[in-house]
Recover the amino acids of this structure.
């Protein structure tokens, strides 16, 4: 990407953890609910719900639910190689996560792309998701490197207007 545009964005962070642990955090329902979601259900193409410790696979569908948000996100797993790359449909776009081993850490690169260019998508997907992923990647780093979670689970923020845009730890 040579310039900033509204149809995609990239977020990167170095995390001191193994690629295996990081892939577990993204590629299993047990892993992704340990730091990100309140619930994650993956269903295979054959219609069978995956076990919480089982790696997701291309063709799976998912339903995600968050703490402090009553909505849910549904989508498809487009790619999942079991080691260092996955891609899903997400919020009328696509999200890919790649893991690149470096000497002392793993570079986690999240790319959200194919974002629609209407004004609502610019606000809710580009602006909203870009801010959201920045926090969630920092939360993943805090979780894996320091054993703490930064997201809000004690206080119910669902009835506060604009909480999703104003609280940094939603």
């Amino acid at each position: 990407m040579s310039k900033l545009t509204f149809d995609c964005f990239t977020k990167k962070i170095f995390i001191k953890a193994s690629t295996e642990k990081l892939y577990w955090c993204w590629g299993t329902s047990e892993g992704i609910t340990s730091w990100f979601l309140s619930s994650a259900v993956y269903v295979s193409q054959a219609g069978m719900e995956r076990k919480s410790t089982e790696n997701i696979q291309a063709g799976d569908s998912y339903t995600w639910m968050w703490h402090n948000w009553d909505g849910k996100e549904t989508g498809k797993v487009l790619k999942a190689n079991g080691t260092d790359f996955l891609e899903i449909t997400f919020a009328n776009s696509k999200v890919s996560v790649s893991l690149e081993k470096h000497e002392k850490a793993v570079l986690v690169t999240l790319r959200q792309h194919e974002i629609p260019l209407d004004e609502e998508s610019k606000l809710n997907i580009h602006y909203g998701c870009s801010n959201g992923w920045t926090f969630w990647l920092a939360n993943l780093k805090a979780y894996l490197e320091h054993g703490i979670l930064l997201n809000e689970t004690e206080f119910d923020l669902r009835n506060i207007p604009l909480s999703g845009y104003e609280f940094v730890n939603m």
Notes: The radius of gyration is 16 Å. The first strand starts at residue 8 and ends at 15. Residues 94 and 163 are 25 Å apart (CA to CA). The chain has a mean pLDDT of 95.
